[in-house]
Amino acid sequence: MTAMRVSVITDDPTSPSVAPRLPTVPVAATTIAAVHTALPPHRYAQDDLTELIGDLCLAPGADRALLRRLHASTGVRARHLALPIETYAGLGDFGRSNDAWIAAGLDLGEEAVTGALREAGLEPADVDLLMCNSVTGVATPSLDARLVGRLGLRPDVKRLPVFGLGCVAGAAGLARLHDYLRGHPGDTAVLLTVELCSLTLQRRDDSRANLVAGALFGDGAAALVARGRAAAGRDGSGPTVIATRSHLYPGTGHLMGWDIGAAGFRVVIDAGIPRIVREHLGRPLRAFLAEHGLTTDDIGAWVCHPGGPKVLSAVTDVLGLPDDALDSARRSLAAVGNMSSASVLHVLQSHRGSARPEPGTWGLLMAMGPGFCSEFVLLRW
Predict the structure, then answer these.
(1) Which one from 167, 197, 304, 373 is the annotated catalytic residue?
(2) Which residues of 6-162 form beta strands (DSSP E)?
(3) pTM, 2 dp
(4) Across the chain, what does the average pLDDT equal?
(5) 156: left (phi over 0), alpha (psi -120 to 50) or beta
(6) Does 167 qualify as catalytic in the annotation?
(7) Which segments within 197-278 are labelled E, that is strand?
(8) What Rg value do the Cα atoms of the chain yield, rounded?
(9) What is the pLDDT of residues 37-77, one digit of tens each?
(10) Measured between alpha carbons, how far is residue 318 from residues 104, 182, 202 in Å?
(11) What is the dihedral sign for C-alpha 110, 140, 187, 183?
């Protein structure tokens, strides 16, 4: 009888019986075939928006010093708005704002998905799952249901509308697509994020949170096409999803979200978010990488949601990253502002084409949002 040899695993890295952990060899499970961002046609320089947003949010004659400081400190140079800025004062109530969200969101969603499918070399009939994330409006039937006919998707396409994830939804949506495709390896899935943040701006609300939102957030949509390992075709330009990790931080639910009332979605953004990032982000992220034999030094492409200058600085500091590691996020923030869930996909899009990392490069796509929570997606080009 042949004896069975058993390998003993210990958590003690100093034990001589433990071989050094090596980076995981990626097995193709989910390939990101395309990413496409759609932006509204109404583009404004940040300097031009400052006083116009002040007219919306502040009472006549109110001191605008804080407003101007916030607009100057966000790192935003320009933003796109769902509507011309002069029309916002006439929206009146939440119903009209939400109607505008549906109309503009459908147009942008159609543009984003159509562009992503075209870049992936696919037809609408190839799509097996459509996941739609948004936190800036509500609709039943949901946006995805309304888009099926407009896009020419199959009547039997699976749909998953998601609400409540906020800024983390771009990363979390990709992670859940990966979960789905592991079980359906022959399928093609599309993630659509539509965020029209300007339509949630509260008129005559001089709270710091509302003024921060008015200085930081922009509007846009983004779509990502992902394919399972058995799906035919691959353009070779997109990365593979290796693993994902979700993490909630207990006792932080009050930091970010909405207070929902008669006027619609009133933003909650706590000034303590950068501190929470510094105190809590590093440990779970390093543990996630360590499970795959990696450290932050092994990551060659950081795809980070551009939450704002202070959040990006906190991420850089707590992870000990080079000063330029999050430059793609800073460029996105400058060009279009923080588009909530669509932003991390906008950043990912910047890593394609001529800016594509070298084959074999490890990447980490990450975002944070209401909960307070974070989502990590390990990538390999």
Answers:
(1) 167
(2) 30-38, 42-45, 78-81, 129-133, 158-162
(3) 0.89
(4) 90
(5) alpha
(6) yes
(7) 219-228, 240-248, 256-261, 264-269
(8) 22
(9) 999 999 999 999 999 999 999 999 899 999 999 999 999 99
(10) 38, 32, 34
(11) positive
